Amino acid sequence: MKWTMPTISIQTGLKTALSFLLPLVFAFQCGKKIEPKANNYEVWVHNTTSASISLNFEDTYEVYPKEQQLLITAYDSTNQFNFSPFGFNNSDAIQDPIKQLLDNFSIIRTFVYRNDSLKVTWKGPAADLPDSVHSFFNYNSWEIKLTPDVPGQTGTINFYIEEADLE
After folding, report:
1. Beta-carbon contacts of residue 25 (< 8 Å; ≥ 6 apart)
2. Which domain covers residue 86, as residue numbers?
3. Between the CA of residue 81 and those of 31, 93, 115, 116, 163, what are the distances in Å?
4. Pair 55, 70: CB distance under 8 Å
5. Which of 73, 81, 68 is nearest to 47 (CA)?
6. d(CA 47, CA 76)
7. What is the b/e burial string over 51-64, where b = at least 16 CB atoms within 10 angstroms of the residue's CB?
8. Which of 46, 55, 84, 131 is disulfide-compatible with 70, CB 3.0–4.6 A?
9. pLDDT of 113-155, one tens digit each?
10. pTM for the structure as a whole
C-alpha cells in the first residue's frame, strides 16, 4: 500500500482562506471613517451691511443683464453661483482653494449696487494684495472655514461685503 499526501485544489484553498480573511478585514474596517475622494467647498458671499445690495458680474463673454443680478438682502448670505460647490482632487489638496477659485473665474469685473446706485466696481484679474485692499479679486479678502461635520464637504470659501465697500 502506497501512502499519498492528500492534495487540496488551489480553488478550494482560496475559498477557505477568503472565508476566514474577509470577515476579519470587514470587522477591522467597520470603525474607520471613509475619506471623501475630493475636497469640496461651497462658495458664499455675505452682505454684512444694513442695506440690500445687488451684484452684477462681467465675465470674459458678456455683461449679465440687470434682471440677472444677484440680490442679497441686508445681513444675509448667498451661495447662488454657477461655480458653487466646486471640488478638486486630493492630489491638488496642497493648492490654496481660494487661489484656485479666483484663478479659474471667467468673471473680470464685479459691480455692487445699492438702491440702483453703483457703489463699487472690483476689477480682475485676481492678485495677492495687502489685507487692507478689500476686493472681490484679492486672495486675502476671502476666507476658508472648514466644515468637518458636513458630509461630503470640506469647507466654505467666504467673501464679505462690508459697509466700507458701499461708501
Report:
1. none
2. 38-166
3. 37, 22, 22, 21, 22
4. yes
5. 73
6. 5
7. eebbbbbbeeeeeb
8. 55
9. 998 899 999 998 999 999 999 999 999 999 999 887 877 777 8
10. 0.68
> What is the chain's length?
167
What are the DSSP E strand ranges found in the chain? 38-47, 53-59, 70-72, 77-78, 86-89, 107-114, 117-123, 142-146, 155-161
3-class state of residue 74 by DSSP: coil
Number of domains present in the structure of the chain = 1
Residue 60, all three cell numbers: 470674459
Question: Does residue 103 lie in a domain region?
Answer: yes
If DSSP codes are grouped into helix, strand and coil, which group holds residue 151?
Answer: coil
Phi-psi region of 13 (alpha: psi -120 to 50; beta: other; left: phi over 0): alpha
